[in-house]
What we know:
By secondary structure, this protein is mainly α. The chain is built from four helices and no strands.
Amino acid sequence: IRDSVASRGLGDVYKRQVHGRDEVLDALKLDQRAVDEVQPLVADLAAGLGRVPHVPCAAGKAALAKWLVQLNAMRASAEIDDEQARQLSFDLDCAYSEFHRDLAGRH
């Protein structure tokens, strides 16, 4: 019973992380580039990743932390440019792949 509860818990965590990643990617695809539009989404994703037990995802956490430092240093009305949006999308995809590998490695 404990394993099935733990699996359900991990499934919920996984769904929340995928949803958070998709929210950021969707915002970027819709050309939402203002810091006050993107930063809260990245912050939520980073916080959620930090709460995942026993899944290191070190590079993904570091990439999200780097983006938060960069976004937090900008004014709310500032916008990331196309190159930054592309890099953020790439970093999110890499973090997602690492998260998925680390999660799969738990089983």
